[in-house]
Amino acid sequence: MKRVSMGKIVVFCAMLWASVFVFPTGMQAQSAEKAPLYTYVAQWDVPRAMWGDFDKVQASSGDAMRKAVADGTIVAYGSFAILNHQEGTPTHGSWFSATSMANLMKVLEGLRGSPNLTNPVYAASKHWDLVLSSRDYNAHSGTFTNGYLRVGNWRPKAGSSDPEGKVVRATMGAMLEKLLADGALHSYQLDTETIHSQDPGTMFVAIVIPQEYTHVQLAPSLDW
Predict the structure, then answer these.
(1) Which of 3, 20, 180, 198 could bond 202 through an S-S bridge, CB–CB 3.0 to 4.6 Å?
(2) Is residue 167 in a domain?
(3) Counting beta carbons within 10 angstroms of the beta carbon of residue 119, is it exposed (0 to 12), middle (13 to 18) or buried (19 or more)?
(4) Would residue 2 count as lying in a domain?
(5) Do residues 190 and 171 make contact, with C-beta atoms less than 8 angstroms apart?
């Protein structure tokens, strides 16, 4: 993923195939310290001629995801296709979230044992993944399609410090919470990597936007 300065641009913009959020009521209320939420993100650079094949394979995993939501193993999942393509970067992806790392790994291991992984489209595609955690997140429960996922990532400036996330929570978090309450967002997460592939301290901001609110922008520049 591309490094960007705070408030500049998003990393990618993607149309969702499907996105499901089943957060219990107690998790939806904004609080100073929420229980951690863990998210696995899989990203794929799929050859253009195989995009249709990839969509079919992803759709076939829906039953497993819905079962994991129904039994409480995960609380959210979704799939996306990148709109603004760049050479050597992902074209498609998916994610799922759980309230424990154990449940996240349980679902991941189940997917790795799926017959779908032998499909030729996976062998022909490059792959990246991320494991993220968050204590600042919220979502409307329900199933949403044809929305937009926007993700940005930022590194803290040299000498800055916000170890408990108080500055980010009072600024970016408060803004996103208001947008969610106004119906301009389906969900948001302020994430950091649990397993680092970028500089420690890098923050990811992920928002899911209904089609009618595609004008929503991330916050102006913040010094943190």
Answers:
(1) 198
(2) yes
(3) middle
(4) no
(5) no
Domain annotation covers residue 77: yes
Dihedrals phi, psi of 189, to nearest 5 degrees: -145, 140
> pLDDT by residue (tens digit) across 114-162?
888 889 999 999 999 999 999 999 999 988 887 888 888 877 676 666 7
Which of 132, 138, 128 is closest to 101 using CA atoms?
132
Tokens 């199933």 -> residue = 143
The model's pTM: 0.82
220, part of any domain: no
> In this structure, is the dihedral angle defined by the CA atoms of residues 8, 14, 15 and 18, taken in order, positive or negative?
negative
Q: Which two tokens stand for residue 41?
A: 């993100």
Query: Residue type for 101, please?
Result: M
Query: What is the rounded CA–CA span in Å between residue 132 and residue 210?
Result: 23
Q: For residues 18 and 12, what is the distance between their CA atoms, to the nearest angstrom?
A: 17
How open is the CA angle 90-67-28, to the nearest 5 degrees?
A: 75
4-26 pLDDT, tens digit per residue, is 333 333 334 455 656 778 765 44
Amino acid at position 186, single letter: H
Residues 6+ apart with CB under 8 A from 181: none
**Cβ contacts of 81 within 8 Å, gap of 6 or more:** 14, 15, 17, 51, 55, 91, 92
Integer angstrom CA distances of residue 137 from 70, 128, 161, 162, 177: 21, 23, 21, 17, 8
Strand segments, DSSP code E, in 8-98 are 12-21, 37-45, 76-82, 92-98
Which domain range does residue 28 map to?
12-213
Coil, helix or strand for 199? coil
Amino acid occupying residue 4:
V
